Amino acid sequence: MAKMWAGRTDGATDKLADDFNSSIHFDCRMYKQDIQGSIAHAAMLAGCNIISNEDADTLIAGLEGILADLESGALQFDMQCEDIHMFVEQVLTERIGDVGKKLHTARSRNDQVALDIRMYLRDEADQIIALTKQVIVALTEQAEQNKATIMPGYTHLQRAQPITFGHHMMAYAMMLLRDVDRICDCKKRMNMSPIGCCALAGTTYATDRRSEAAALGFDGICLNSLDGVSDRDFCVELMSAIALLQMHMSRLSEEIILWSSWEFKFVELSDAFTTGSSIMPQKKNPDMAELIRGKTGRIYGDLMSLLTALKGLPLAYNKDMQEDKECVFDAVDTIKMCLGVMSGMLSTMSVCADNMKKAAQGGFINATDLADYLVKKGMPFRSAYKISGQIVARCIADKTVLEDLPLEVYKEYSDLFDNDLYNEIDLTTCVEKRISEGGTSIQSVEKQIEYVKAQLN
User: Fold this and answer.
1) Can you give the pTM of this predicted structure?
2) In DSSP terms, which residues pair with 162 in a beta bridge?
3) Which pLDDT tens digit goes with each residue over 317-371?
4) Residue 360 near residue 151, CB atoms below 8 Å
5) Phi-psi category of 310—alpha, beta or left, where left has phi over 0 and alpha has psi -120 to 50?
6) What local confidence, expressed as pLDDT, does residue 5 receive?
7) Before 367, cis peptide (omega within 30)?
């Protein structure tokens, strides 16, 4: 097949070199953005009297026909073409003749591919945001249903203080809200048009870059042509935001894996999001959560791959930059799949409230409240802390919990203890006393839910 860039050379590359150089097998997914960009480019060329209105109409009709045929399946990608840009131009020229060769006036594949990937990732960012919001909704629904469900809160994976499961779910909702904000912020810098930067130095034609950018939904143009064709910051920034989002998903997955084990049994995952064992009939494996956790390393690898590819490139375009697509496409595809699975897994997950409550009681996580009780009665905190520790040790030895220890035993340690003690160390009271903004009380969790809903709307 004759190369459209043949001229300086005869274009007769080795078959192995062709395969090595080709990108159509992965950049064909940008066909819609490539055609939309070409339609806007044809309109701009006519608007600037660089080509005739008749030629522009012919080009646009031809491009619209290619788009329709690709989407209906009437036209298949030719994998012998070097890339999606060459494929579209080749088909266009076959269909409308030499007028098709005018489309590439005042642009290069360098600014064309930079345009396509910005438009493609802009669309994908919107999908990632929408899927992330679905996970936030699932978290918020679980929080609403469990705003009074007491569980142990942990530090160092040791039971620390009583919280509610609703409070725990809202912690992840806050993380994911920040992720949405990061991706929205990334889109602002992504949404600058490189088209018209051409190969690297601009063009001798009197083009109107700003009208072409506006027609494609961009907020402005890249103000330096060298930067416009060589910039892939927006890819790195989006992948960084995706990596952070996936890290949050991995942390949540890790907890779901722990919580669904027999050792915890805080939650029960739906059969729809678990698998069984090939030889152990009792098993119910949290494979979806494990895969989300595992795919985090894959997304980190995608990010590092692009950073490494870019780190030594001189200006402006280099073929190394073709390596941007597979890693960013993989990161996008992976996060979208993980988000879809996570929202379904969360929305169908059952909470074992009784097991959570028992774990909270068995962990002596109201010991701080026991010490606070003595402090409120006038005892110095360090003295109260020591006595509370001694009482916990007594409970462990007697195989009981603070709530069930008789008052006469408490009085062996201090005469300040009285019957009002039991209300103060009741786990529900302990939770409801956390009245500070952002705390675990039901009222606080309700406010957090209201805030998240407002942000989503």
Assistant:
1) 0.92
2) 152
3) 999 999 999 999 999 999 999 999 999 999 999 999 999 999 998 889 999 999 9
4) yes
5) alpha
6) 46
7) no
Rounded mean pLDDT of 242-270?
Answer: 97
> Which residues participate in catalysis according to the annotation?
156, 277
Q: With the C-alpha atoms ordered 29, 31, 32, 34, is the resulting torsion angle positive or negative?
A: positive
CA distance linking residue 146 with residue 169, whole number of Å: 9
CB atoms within 10 A of CB 74: 10
The candidate with the shortest Cα–Cα distance to 421, out of 406, 435, 439, 441, is 406
**Tokens 């345009």 found at:** 115
DSSP per position, 214-226? HHTT-SEE-SSHH
Q: Which domains does the chain have, with CATH numbers?
A: 15-105 (1.10.275.10), 110-145+165-205+223-357 (1.20.200.10), 361-456 (1.10.40.30)
CB within 8 A of 377, min separation 6: which ones? Answer: 416
Q: Tell me what percent of the chain is helix, strand and coil, each rounded to the nearest 5.
A: 65, 5, 30
Q: Which of 338, 169, 183 is nearest to 249 (CA)?
A: 338
**How remote is the C-alpha of 289 from its chain's centroid?**
15
Two structure tokens written together for 191: 């949404």
Segments of 282-326 assigned E as strands: none
Tokens of 4: 């459209």
Distances from the Cα of 182 to the Cαs of 112, 185, 253, 371, in angstroms? 26, 5, 21, 42
Between CA 442 and CA 420 the distance in angstroms is 22
- Cis-peptide into 173, omega within 30 deg: no
Asked whether the beta carbons of 77 and 87 are under 8 A apart, the reply is yes
Token duo for residue 436: 């500070």
Amino acid at 7: G
58, 96 Cβ separation under 8 angstroms: yes
Instruction: List, in order, residues 6 or more apart from 341 with CB less than 8 Å away.
Output: 273, 288, 291, 292
Angstrom distance (rounded) from CA 84 to CA 26: 9
